[in-house]
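User: Reviewer 2 asked us to show a designed sequence for the structure in our supplementary figure. I'm pasting the structure tokens here. Could you produce the per-position amino acids so we can include them in the response letter?
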């Protein structure tokens, strides 16, 4: 598929559709809105402008293909750029903080379970 370059550069609050291409040539499409860090919530499709991908895309146009070496990814094709003020949920940052707190709490519970299991196993062996 050949995409004609558009004159709309990627800026904050643009909806962007990309194709992420790995070293085997496999491609996966993704769509998101590029937002300031305080509004970012990738689960909701809001990509932080300060991420490596966000920084790479700023100022580029649909139709461009850019090198992007992260993990097994090698390049990004910009498929579409839609300008405009995209409605960003006002609670995006709060939801992100809540998700991080929940993950931290779950991690602490898991660590405690592992510790108690290991302690019990060690106690049974030494008795």
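Assistant: Here is a per-position design you can include in the supplement:
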């Amino acid at each position: 598929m050949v995409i004609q370059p558009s004159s709309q550069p990627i800026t904050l609050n643009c909806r962007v559709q990309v194709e992420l291409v790995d070293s085997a040539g496999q491609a996966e499409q993704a769509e998101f809105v590029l937002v300031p860090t305080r509004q970012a919530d990738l689960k909701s499709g809001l990509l932080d402008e300060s991420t490596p991908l966000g920084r790479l895309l700023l100022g580029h146009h649909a139709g461009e293909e850019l090198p992007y070496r992260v993990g097994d990814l090698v390049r990004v094709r910009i498929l579409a750029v839609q300008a405009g003020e995209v409605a960003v949920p006002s609670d995006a940052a709060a939801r992100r903080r809540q998700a991080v707190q929940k993950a931290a709490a779950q991690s602490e519970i898991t660590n405690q379970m592992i510790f108690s299991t290991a302690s019990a196993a060690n106690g049974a062996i030494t008795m």
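For the response letter, you might also mention the following. The mean pLDDT is 83. The helical segments are 52-57, 92-126.
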